[in-house]
Amino acid sequence: MSYMALYRKFRPSEFSEVRGQEHIVTTLKNQIKADRIGHAYLFCGTRGTGKTTVAKIFAKAVNCEHPVDGNPCGTCAACRSIAAGTSMNVIEIDAASNNGVDNIREIREEVAYSPTEGKYKVYIIDEVHMLSIGAFNALLKTLEEPPSYVIFILATTEVHKIPVTILSRCQRYDFRRITADVITDRLRELTEREGVQTEEKALRYIAKAADGSMRDALSLLDQCIAFYLDQELTYDHVLDVLGAVDTEVYSRLLRLTLSQDLPGVMEQIEELVVQGRELSQFVTDFTWYLRNLLLLKTSDNMEDVLDVSTENLKRLQEEARMIETDTLMRYIRIFSELGGQIRYASQKRVLVEVAFIKLCRPAMETNTDVILDRIRILERQLEESLEEIASGGAYLYQNSGQQGHRREAFPAQVETEAPPPAPEALPEDVEAVVKNWHQVTNRLHPLLRTYLKGARLKALGGGKLGIIAATPTGEAFLKEEAHLREIRNVILQDTGKEMEILVACAQTDPHKDVGAIDIEQVIHTEIEYEDE
Ligand SMILES: [Zn+2]
Fold first, then answer.
1. What architecture is domain 180-242?
2. From the CA of 87, how far away is ligand 1's center (Å)?
3. If you measure from the C-alpha of residue 179 to the centroid of ligand 1, how many angstroms do you get, rounded to a whole number?
4. Interhelix angle for 247-258 vs 348-360, to 10°?
5. Architecture of the domain whose range is 427-530
6. How far, in Å, from the CA of 82 to the mean position of ligand 1?
């Protein structure tokens, strides 16, 4: 026996099997019981929510010889021939491929003949928004004066594309996205029937990934079962098949963000990209993660609502204590905006990186909700410097940790007392910095790194470093005091020396400003520097 996709195999054949659309099913059943059937229905809603399934059950029910409580009996000749797809009374049209005037004219001609058997001819037009304007007009004529034995069921995912003239002639039914709970229950029921062992968490994950679509959920389940045939379907298996990111990654990213460790965040993103993760999905999942945190933070007894493992819950609770509610709201705002943009973007990675920069550096944003965050960061820095002063270690830039440098996103913005000045750099320090320049740039702000990419370096006399920007814009950017300060700070961490930096531009003044040249090091050859 050939394999049959789950969503075909378990397609509901009567109203009671339809999940998550009770409001629609009840109304339709009542119409059938009261024999008050309309002639034009519009079923709208996202894909996989049961529009065509309900349309077919409805077609069966109106033609059934002895319906039971509005449901088709499933055994009479009419029910059987409709189920087998051989009935002349149910005509399914895919408007995506039959969208012309002629297709609709054909229907109009056919409509003139009453059914040879059964009570109703039911026309199910799927993706009806795809019809041309001419076709809509032709359809409208039929809808204006439908023969008593004809029912039109128009189905669409994009109701805003349907002309008002058509809308006004139809009874409209909005199919809801199906909740993760309802989908999970259905998946459990079907896997039990199929004799497939599953972990509850695995089914939950599939249900959530399907985002309201039962058909998608069943297709995903199919994929997972096929991949791990005759094995228990575990959470890990599902993650594996769906290419999903385990929640630990979000936790790591969040903690790095909270400590404003931008280089660490960038490393994590790099890792995701290397692993071949789909970044739009990642953005959706991370937003969901933040939403869970918010729920946990703002209400009690949320543990049951969040379906996460005990160990993940512990981690979440810990993080909820680490983050302020308004910070969390700001993060969610940035990520939901990103979710809207990223789907069709070509530079997905850049967008994700920029979003994290915004999270780490509220100073770069202008929204009002960042102000609290900025104040909080300043307060914390103030507190830290006070503590350092109190403990006698007032020097902000000592090497710490095995990294050999301190990852500080906000270097020295708050200094209650100036640290003792570091010694000035010597020519050999400059040479060392020029040689190991990538180690410096690696730790800089990504924007700074971008402008430094085309730049060239010169070790100047007197322990000064010359940076020759490729463009005037780059020059102006690098010359800004805050940016120079950032570069100097990184150098300070490495050498323990204060290095004077001069910036010039290769296009405008190759020699001016830069001073006498001792050694010349070309670090990037994309920009040719011409010596006369
Ligand atoms: Zn029947």
1. Orthogonal Bundle (1.10)
2. 13
3. 31
4. 50
5. 2-Layer Sandwich (3.30)
6. 9
Tell me how far the alpha carbon of residue 57 lies from the centroid of ligand 1, in angstroms: 10
- Amino acid in position 477: F
Express each pLDDT in 162-218 by its tens digit: 999 999 999 999 999 898 899 999 999 999 998 999 999 899 989 887 878 899 899
Q: 128 C-alpha vs ligand 1 centroid, how far in Å?
A: 28
Domain ranges of the chain: 6-175, 180-242, 247-360, 378-410, 427-530
Q: How far is the CA of 79 from the centre of ligand 1 (A)?
A: 4
Residues 6+ apart with CB under 8 A from 123: 91, 93, 107, 111, 150, 151, 152, 153
Instruction: Write the pLDDT tens digit of every residue in 278-317.
Output: 788 889 889 988 998 998 888 877 766 665 656 677 888 8
Sequence letter at residue 407 = R
Q: Which CATH class is domain 6-175?
A: alpha beta
> What architecture (CATH level 2) is domain 247-360?
Up-down Bundle (1.20)
List, in order, residues 6 or more apart from 189 with CB less than 8 Å away: none
